Amino acid sequence: MSAESDRSLSRQDNARFLLCLVLSFAFLLGPPSWGEVTGSLIRRSVLVPFLYLQARAEDARTSHAVRERLTSERDSAAYAAQFLPALRLENQRLRQLLALGQRLGGGYVSAEVLHQALPTDGRTLLLSVGSRAGVQRFDPVVSPEGLIGVVLNAEPDRSVAMTWAHPEFRASAFTENGSVFGVVAPTPQTDGGEMLLQLRGVAYRDTISVGTNVMTAGLGGVYPLGIPVGQVIGLVREEAGWQRAYLLRPAASPMIASHVLILTHPVQGSLAGAFRDSTP
Amino acid sequence: MTVARAQRTRLLGVMLLLAALQFYLRPRIANPRLAPDFLLIALLVYGIRSRPGAAAVAGFAIGIITDALTPARFGAGALASTLVGYLASWGRAVFFADNLLVNAGLFAGGLWLRNLIVLLASDAGEGGFWPQLAIWSPLEAVTTAITGVLVLVLFRRWLDLRLDS
Questions:
Q1: Number of folded domains in chain B?
Q2: What is the CATH number of the domain that holds B65?
Q3: Domain that holds residue B71
C-alpha cells in the first residue's frame, strides 16, 4: 500500500471517528427528546427480535426456577441445601407479587424487567409490556416491597420506566402516621455505599424518628396514596429555621427486581394495606 | 463466493451469535451485574480486525443500541463505545500482540473503560460511581474477558485470527 493511500485511509478513519464523537455529544448535550425518539425508533425496529428473545429468556428463567425447585424437593437434602435458597427467594418474590396483585384487585399489568449491561441500568428499566397491554406514560411501577418508579415511555410492546435511582425522580411523600410531608429524591451518596433516598422539604418544626416508614402522599396525580417508599435512617441536613432533609433506605430495589406491577388505572383510596400485607 | 465475502459472512455470523447470546443467555445468569457483556465482546472482536474508523462507527452503532435499552442518559453509551472501539482498533494496530492473555486484558480493560466513560458522562454521583468502578465493573470485566477469550479460541478460524498459545 502506498504512503499516499495509507494517509488517505487514516484521514477517513479520523473523519469517521470525529463524526461519531460529534453525534454522541449531540445526543448527550442535545434535548432529551432526541434520545427518546431515537431510542424508541431503535427499540421498535432493529431490537424487536432481540428483545423478544430476552423476554422469552426471562420467562424461561422463571419457569426453570420453578422446575428446579420441584426437582430439588425430590432430590437429596444435600442437593437441596446447595440450590434451594436462591430458588426459594425468587419463588417467594413471585408469590408476594401475585398476592399483591390480588390485594390490589385489578387495575394493574405485570411485567418482566429486562435488565441491561450498562452500569446505569437501574436508573431506567426496560419492561416487557407496553401500550397494547394498557400501559401509559406516568403509570406507577411497584414491586411487593414498594415503589420502583414511573413509566417514562410506553411503546406498543415495551415500556421504559424511570426508577427512584434516576437523578430526576421526585415523588411527594409523607410519614406513615400522616404527620410530616416532603418530597422524595435520590441522594448523592459520598461514602460509596448503597443508593439511598432523601425526604426533602420537611418543615423545620417537624422531626421524624429513625425507623419511621415513608409512603407516597398521593399528591400530584402520578403516584397513588400509600405506596411504601422507604424507611428513615437519619437526618441529612437542616437549613436553620427553614427545612430538614432525612435519609431513607428505599423499600424496593430496581437493580434486583425481576418482575414488577404497573398500575394502569387510577386508584381510589390508600394502597398502604395491600403493601403492608406483602411485607415478608 | 470470494474469500473476502466468505470472511465477511463468517464475521457477521459470529456477531449475530454474540448479539443473540446477549439477549438470550445473559438474562439467564443470576446476577446481571456480573454477566459478560457479549455486545462489547462483539465490538472488540470487530475492532481488533478492522480499521479504527470502521471500529468507531461499529462502536457508535452498538452504543446507540445500548442507549436505547438503558436510556438513563442517551448518548453516554454511544460516546463510550465509540472511544473503546476506536482505541481497541488503534491499539491493536500499534502494539497489541496476538496473544490470548493480551486479548483477555483488552476485553477486561475495554469493559472497564466503557463503564468509566458511561459513568462519567451520566453524572453518576460518587455513591453510584465508586462501587460500580471498583467492585462491579472489575467483576464484570473478568467474566467478559474469560468469555471473550473463549470466543476467540472457538472462532479463531472463522475470524481469521492468529493467536499465540
A1: 1
A2: 1.10.1760
A3: 3-154
- pLDDT tens profile B109-139: 999 999 999 988 887 665 567 778 888 899 9
Residues of chain A positioned with their CB less than 8 A from the CB of B121 = 28
Cα A128–A129–A133 angle (5° rounding)?
Answer: 165
Per-window interface: B 74-93 vs A, CB < 8 A = 74-79, 82-83, 86
B164 part of a folded domain:
no
pLDDT tens track for B96-108: 667 888 889 999 9
Q: Which of B27, B70, B78 sits opposite A24 (nearest CB)?
A: B78
Asked if residue B81 is part of any domain, the answer here is yes
List, in order, residues 6 or more apart from A18 with CB less than 8 Å away: none
Cross-chain CB nearest to B23 (options A24, A29, A57): A57
> Degrees (nearest 5) of the Cα angle B46, B50, B54?
90
Min Cα–Cα distance to chain A from B45, Å: 18
Does the residue B165 lie in any domain? no
Predicted TM-score (pTM) of this structure: 0.74
> Does the beta-carbon distance from B74 to A47 stay under 8 Å?
no
